[in-house]
Design the sequence.
């Protein structure tokens, strides 16, 4: 489920900043966008970046330790997981490899975090006190028609995060610097339900964290603009199950065809696309289509991810798809069950973390860096996490191909993948070092995060005033 400035960009007018994704968002919430722009200028992030990323032997030693761990065993571990993919909530082999390595490096591992079998929390046993530094790792593979495959390179997210966690934890212990390092193993990122990190968040697994970091594969070295996240867009996961009556296909009038109903659903969605805003995305597959050609299917099902950059219009979009399903059932004499089984909401992205991470990625050898920030996005797609805890996602170029492809999986085993993974691990270790050792940096991160989060309600209220449902009047 992939897929809510530096230097002089901060000085441009708010209307030119990529503060939110769509023109409607920027226009409707122009007051909020101006406040975001004023906040970013007051933080003077370019100066902060220059100060943090300048010469620092201790920080570079921490980054070098992360690289040594990757070169020693962890790149090979990532390659191994790439070659043995496991889909979400079934990642038992991958989790064992990762947790065995953590235990070997003085982490106490507790399995079953949030009640999820392949989730875990690993705490470094030799460090203590605040700040609390959290590292999120993932390890699930994609579901493909040819079987599971690591077309999103989750296979090396674990090794990257573990290298950074060990490097900074060892430094804190060696120098007697306060700080606690925790690694969170999060399963099933590519699946709903459940949304693993939301389940873990609701269970209090992330309580007390001052910052969370993660990495993710990409075909270019990127960072996000600050603001309310749109990442892979807010998602409603909805399953539509149609119920008909069986009959012989030669006398199909004696039954009610649930397959015709699910086909009508797809046709109805195509028919309403012109009434949807252009940023809307509706993605569906038929998961049940009948059992035999000579029997009228009496049960079919389709699974949909309905997406939009903000949650306000998403509610309207989802209602239109639900009505398309109801119309399909009415037209075919069937019945439909609508199951809103899951949702993702994107979170808060902040420049004090994203710009520092981006600078470190370039410092440690990331290639293909895009000069300008992308759309705002939380570092973690669930929103429940990144809307409530400051964090950042590291995105060094790790593939010459796009996400969710067999080519990206292949690149995980080659130089382009390994070079990006090394940059991610070193950059992550360096940023965690800064966060642990610089109270002024922690204060800047907290100020930006709290300020942007406080604007979110104002932002949503502004959008509600704009996304007016047209009135349809009959018999004029």
Sequence:
């Amino acid at each position: 489920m992939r897929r809510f400035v530096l230097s002089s960009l901060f000085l441009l007018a708010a209307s030119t900043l990529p503060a939110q994704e769509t023109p409607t968002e920027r226009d409707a919430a122009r007051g909020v966008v101006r406040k975001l722009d004023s906040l970013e200028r007051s933080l003077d992030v370019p100066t902060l970046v220059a100060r943090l990323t300048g010469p620092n032997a201790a920080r570079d030693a921490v980054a070098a330790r992360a690289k040594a761990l990757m070169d020693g065993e962890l790149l090979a571990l990532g390659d191994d997981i790439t070659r043995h993919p496991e889909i979400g909530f079934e990642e038992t082999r991958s989790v064992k490899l990762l947790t065995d390595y953590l235990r070997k490096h003085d982490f106490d591992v507790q399995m079953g975090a949030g009640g999820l079998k392949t989730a875990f929390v690993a705490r470094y046993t030799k460090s203590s006190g605040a700040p609390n530094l959290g590292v999120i790792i993932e390890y699930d593979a994609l579901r493909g028609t040819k079987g599971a495959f690591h077309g999103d390179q989750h296979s090396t997210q674990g090794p990257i995060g573990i290298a950074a966690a060990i490097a900074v934890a060892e430094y804190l212990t060696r120098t007697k610097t306060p700080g606690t390092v925790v690694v969170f193993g999060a399963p099933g990122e590519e699946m709903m339900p459940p949304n693993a990190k939301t389940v873990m968040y609701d269970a209090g697994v992330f309580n007390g964290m001052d910052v969370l970091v993660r990495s993710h594969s990409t075909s270019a070295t990127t960072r996000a603009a600050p603001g309310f996240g749109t990442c892979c867009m807010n998602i409603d996961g909805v399953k539509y199950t149609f119920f008909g009556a069986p009959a012989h296909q030669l006398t199909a009038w004696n039954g009610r065809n649930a397959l015709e109903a699910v086909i009508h659903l797809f046709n109805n969605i195509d028919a309403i696309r012109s009434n949807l805003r252009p940023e809307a995305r509706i993605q569906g597959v038929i998961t049940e289509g009948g059992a035999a050609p000579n029997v009228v299917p009496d049960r079919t099902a389709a699974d949909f991810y309905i997406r939009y950059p903000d949650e306000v219009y998403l509610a309207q979009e989802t209602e239109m798809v639900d009505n398309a399903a109801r119309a399909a059932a009415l037209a075919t004499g069937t019945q439909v069950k609508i199951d809103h089984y899951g949702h993702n909401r994107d979170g808060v992205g902040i420049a004090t973390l994203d710009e520092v991470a981006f600078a470190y990625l370039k410092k440690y050898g990331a290639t293909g860096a895009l000069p300008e920030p992308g759309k705002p996005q939380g570092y973690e797609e669930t929103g429940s996490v990144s809307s409530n805890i400051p964090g950042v996602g590291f995105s060094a170029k790790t593939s010459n191909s796009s996400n969710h492809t067999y080519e990206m999986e292949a690149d995980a085993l080659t130089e382009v993948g390994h070079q990006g993974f090394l940059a991610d691990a070193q950059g992550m270790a360096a940023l965690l070092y800064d966060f642990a050792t610089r109270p002024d940096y922690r204060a800047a991160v907290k100020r930006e995060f709290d300020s942007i989060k406080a604007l979110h309600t104002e932002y949503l209220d502004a959008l509600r005033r704009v996304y007016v449902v047209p009135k349809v009047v009959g018999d004029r």
